[in-house]
Amino acid sequence: MIFRLNKHYASLCVLLLLTEIYIALFLKTGFIRYTFGDFLSVILLYCFFKSFLKIDSIKLAVNVLKFAFVIEFMQFFHVLKLFHLENNRFLSIVLGSTYQTSDLLAYTIGVIAIVVVEHKVNKLCIV
Fold first, then answer.
1. Cβ atoms within 10 Å, residue 6
2. What does the buried/exposed string (b/e) look like for 49-78 if buried means 16 or more CB atoms within 10 Å of the residue's CB?
3. DSSP 76
4. Please, what are the averages of pLDDT over each run of 10 residues along the chain (127 residues)?
5. Per-residue pLDDT tens over the stretch 77-90
6. What does the domain layout of the chain look like in residue ranges?
7. Burial class of residue 45, CB neighbours in 10 A (0-12, 13-18, 19+)
8. Given this model, what pLDDT does residue 126 score?
9. Which residue stretches, if any, does this entry annotate as coiled coil (predicted)?
């Protein structure tokens, strides 16, 4: 694993972050808010790490998926409530508060999209 700035991934990360903020501020219900936002969140995390780490794409994608699953299962077990942090607005926003099985599916589809796109891009760069 090597540290270096990748402007393409950094730009994608900023764009995805702005998109997520827009969704959070202006869309209060629906598919885009609840499912597409989760789909984008794993891609955002992936781009964040790829913006400064030179790491195998599949390895990173799998680790991002594991991280997303851990966060979701923390919601299932009400970890914030367990540690009396449920009133901490920042942690509630970052970690979430409601477990949804559909979120796990959205994360998984997001990571599959990452792997497919990375494979296609790498294939084009080699030719």
1. 15
2. bbbeeeeebeebbebbbeebeebbebbeee
3. H
4. 89 97 90 93 97 95 98 95 90 87 97 95 75
5. 999 999 999 899 88
6. 2-126
7. buried
8. 64
9. none
